[in-house]
Amino acid sequence: MPDLRALSCLACALALALAACGREPPHALGTLEYDRITLPAPAAERIVEIAVREGERIGVGARILTLEQTRGDAQLAAAAADVARQREALDELRNGARSEDLDQARANLAATQAQARDARAYYARLQPLGARQLVAAAEVDRARAAAGNADAQVAAARAALAELDNGVRPEQIAQAEAALAAAEAQQRTQSATTGKLDLVAPRAGRVDSLPYRLGDEAPAGAPLAVLLVGDAPYARVYVPEALRAGVEVGDRATVRVGADGERRHAGRVRMIRSEPTFTPYYALSGEDAARLSYLAEVQLEGEGVADLPAGLPLRVEFDR
Q1: Residue 207 and residue 57: Cα distance in Å, rounded?
Q2: Which intervals hold domain YbhG-like alpha-helical hairpin (predicted)?
């Protein structure tokens, strides 16, 4: 008869082998993702054309949709007119005074000088009469004041002529140059905003979402389109606390795509967070710490991965 102890040991070994075969290797669960680019609305304008469909592949610079440009064109024209006005004002300062302005200033100076001579002569005639009390003292005072006022007007006219002869100050030209630069910057800003009313793809990829429809008017900054970009997708998984210590950036991994996990792809860890995604570590102790999860990304490699759709469930087994 066979040894009962040997049969018992054989049965235990077989049971352990079967249990080992049925036990799944350590893994992390997640979904298949692509890098996403969100294209915001540059202005609150109505959508007048949509050139693509959701799920369509597009290249760099492909037009996605067009916003109404009437208001943007008008604002750009206003900015261009302001630039022209500031440029003409700067040229006027640089060219200096016109000859007609100089002639007018000289004539004004001559007129004030004649008035001053007449006022001084009148005052000179009243002075002896006032001394002999033949005219009122107030009349003499008025004549003296008129003569002083006439001299002041002569000084003002002479200063105005000198200002025209000397030209504008360098500080005024610098201010005009700064105003022109500000107007040109505003024009460039408006031109860039108007140019963005034709929404184009900054990178090649696939149109994932178009939240708004033809005729909608999205607020400024709202996402008009979401693109999935990149040469290959990546697995976004949540690494359990028990595996976190053994996972580092650059580690090799096997990605099983789909609910059945039959499709296998090689991958490499490109990112893993050092802080837990869910419950903070300081709120857990003992067995509760095993509930921590750390967000990680595993880049898929090899042929055929670029055609995989986003959102598929997957399982990642780390080679370590």
Answers
A1: 6
A2: 73-186
